[in-house]
Amino acid sequence: MAQLWGGRFRKETDQLVYNFNASIGFDQKFYRQDIQGSIAHVKMLAKQAILTKQERDHIIGGLESILLDLESGELQITSEYEDIHSFVEAHLIDRIGEVGKKLHTGRSRNDQVALDMKLFIRNEITELDSLIKELLKVLERIMEENLHTYMPSFTHLQKAQPVTLAHHMGAYFEMFRRDRGRLHDIFERMNYCPLGSGALAGTIYPLDREYTAKLLDFYGPTANSMDSVSDRDYVIELLSAVSTVMMHLSRFSEEIIIWNSNEYSFVEIDDAYSTGSSIMPQKKNPDIAELIRGKTGRVYGALISVLTTMKGLPLAYNKDMQEDKEITFDALNTVKGCLALFTRMIDTIKFRKEVMEASAKKGFTNATDAADYLVRKGVPFRDAHGIVGRLVLTCIDKNCSLDDLSLEEFRSYTSVFEEDIYDAISMKTCVEKRMIAGATGAEAMKHVISANREYLQSE
């Protein structure tokens, strides 16, 4: 078919060039945004007396009929059109005649595609925020139910100190809350309307950009027309933010994979979110967690790709920028799928509380509290550290925990130990006495859970 820009050319575009240049295969995802932006543009043109009210109503009616037919499936987007913009305009002209040719007055495909991308990204941010909030609700429930579920924490994958499952889940709650904050920040920065920027220099038509921005729920128009059509910072920011989301999901998935192993047995993943082996009948594999961990690299790749595409582009619009779409669409679909599946998996997971507590006891996670006990009795910390270290060696040789040692065995290292050592190093004491802000004790965690609940209910 004839191109929208074909008047300048004497020859038809080579078919290979046309295919290479066309974006209809992926930017058709923008059909709603493109029509939404065109309707706002036409309303503004009529307000400014660039179009008559009759022309406005005629064009809007045609655009709405195209949208209706696309939504119902009666109209299909085909590859004979270069992009979604030419598809919509060509069908509009077919439906309403010559007046349809006025749709593009005061507008370039450059500011049009910038608008479509912003409208699309804005919707994606809202969807992502909703999905993360659902995950936070599940984490909040797990925290509320496990204030007294004791487990080991780790550094270097070595057992460190006892904490509660509520506290451990609370760490992920904080991560994903920060993710929501990043999405909010991106929305605030990007929510300005590029329509009216033209190709790069604005237009001689008396457009009311404030009015168009208001119709499309933007805070206002963008400030510089060259920046408007060449800005993809918001795409890069979003890909960076969702890469961080995926990093958090991947870390969480890694822990679920470890906890699901026979050696740990801290959790049992629901059958609906596990798979088996084609040859080993006993297997129950954490495939969802593993796939999320694997797909993280896919999202990282999208971020690096767009950064690389943009790094050498002069002002203003360059065709290279068309490359932002396919990978961004794929990355966002990947993140949304991972969030939805991970939330369902963690919501149905079974925590083996007794195994977790036994593991904390066997891992000498109360050793620091034993040293603190001696310090409270007047022993210098460095000496207390050495004494408890030797006690741990004794336990290793005897294949027992600190709790299993007799008082005589404790006192063989220092007479400072008394009967109260057993209470001092119990899991309950080790956890519950940590009551300062941000600590693992139940009293501290109750304040956190209350604040989290208020945070989730306030929006």
Give an overview of the whole structure.
This protein has 459 residues and is mostly helical. The protein has 19 helices and four strands. Strands 1-2 form a two-stranded antiparallel sheet. Strands 3-4 form a two-stranded antiparallel sheet. Helix 3 (31-47) crosses helix 8 (209-215), helix 6 runs antiparallel to helix 19 (442-457) and helix 10 (233-260) runs parallel beside helix 12 (324-348). The longest helix is centred in the N-terminal third of the chain and has 37 residues, at 109-145. The two termini are 50 Å apart. The mean pLDDT is 94.
Short description:
With 459 residues, the protein is mainly α.
Q: How many strands in all? A: 4
- Rounded to the nearest angstrom, the radius of gyration is 31 Å
Structural class: mainly alpha
Q: Helix amount, in percent?
A: 55-70%
- Give the N-terminus to C-terminus distance in angstroms: 50 Å
The run of helices and strands is HHHHHHEEHHHHEHHEHHHHHHH
What would the principal axes of the Cα set say about the shape?
Answer: elongated
Strand content: under 5%
Low-confidence stretches: none
Q: Helical segment tally?
A: 19
Mean pLDDT: 94
- Spatial order of the strands forming the largest sheet: 1-2
* Sheet of most strands: 2 strands, antiparallel
